[in-house]
Amino acid sequence: MCKIKDDDIDEGLSMPSELDPLDNLCSILGNDSLSKIALDQFNGDKERSSWFIKNSIKSKKRGMNLFFILMQYGHYYNFGIKEIDEYDVTKHENVEEPIAIFDSIYDTWIEQDRSLIPLDQAEQRKVFFVCSNPDFIWFDLETTRSTEEMIAMSHCGTDPAGDTMISLREKTYSEEGELLGYNARVTLTYNFEDKCVIQIKGRRNTKVPVEYRKYFLELVESGIVNKMDQKTSYNPVNDIYWSDFPDDLDRLINANPGMMEDEFINSYVNGEKNRIIHLSRTNKIVFDEEGEINFIYNLGNMWGFSTGNKFLLRESDGSTTPINISGMLSFIVNFPTRDCTQIVDSSGSILETDPFNFDELMLGNVKDIIVKEIKDVYRVMQEEV
After folding, report:
1. pTM beyond cutoff 0.85
2. CA distances for 181 relative to 9, 19, 112, 177, 247, angstroms
3. What are the residue boundaries of the structural domains of the chain, listed by start?
4. Which of the four pLDDT bands, split at 50, 70 and 90, describes residue 262?
5. pLDDT over 90 for what percent of the chain?
6. Residue 180: Cβ within 10 Å count
7. Lesser CB count within 10 Å: N end or C end of the chain?
């Protein structure tokens, strides 16, 4: 694994900041004003957005954590769940408390089986691509805000960053073999001009299950998808990306030369060095001076990293002791192995770990992360100079 350099870590993400929480958040958001973004996330509700800003000043959270909390409000308000929409968040002083309540309301809401789309309703949608298995069809929803997809997939069903949303749906039959309708399996946001995927998620905004990914690759092989750009994606660590297909990339590029328009694919094919590609506000790809490729994912426990996973520090006698690691964490993940041996915590320390597979961690299959050593990131960088 490559060592981390100061250029590889975004200011305000992994490194400690002397800025107060709101200044730090504004520095991350760039030219967009905090009040405008808060108003957008609260669907134009001035009272709620003002409440968020006022109470953020009191928060001990750093800027990026506040940004994530703000995005979660926008996420939940997109579902149209009456109990969430009418909930009075202003009675709380802590901006995180309503999110925990929204989590519970949302979990109750999705317990109903909403995924089956009746046949007469499904056949009103435009066929975009019929897969090699004809029971799976990609439908163009011809909108970037779909209540139908929201209900079927238990996510917000909204992404104005693209031209349209495309839904992978599977035919569903009765025991007698009668076609009843379709079950939605995958939603992606698509840009026609660039043939670009903006976001691609499974049910409840989880990562697309392995059994459906081959149908996405058929879109790539057919020249329908050339690029992936997830800078505007919600929780992009859950999007599938080219890194999920290390064994397929060469075949896909040969079948679809248009993939060379993609920034990562072009750098990968040309063996570029000393380059950083930003995947999103928090995630990026680093091509080091030796041409080694590492993905850096910045996330905290609230963003898909299960709090059930434990960090264990290995003692000199071989025993392990639980340690508390929290806040924003930077996972440095090798491509193509997807193994991680370095994590940077929010205090600026490097955790050297036994190798573990990052994707297995996100699926909850890695229960313990064994930390071999903890180093100060500044000291390590100085040693490399």
Report:
1. no
2. 48, 54, 17, 12, 34
3. 6-109, 116-269, 292-384
4. very high
5. 39
6. 14
7. C
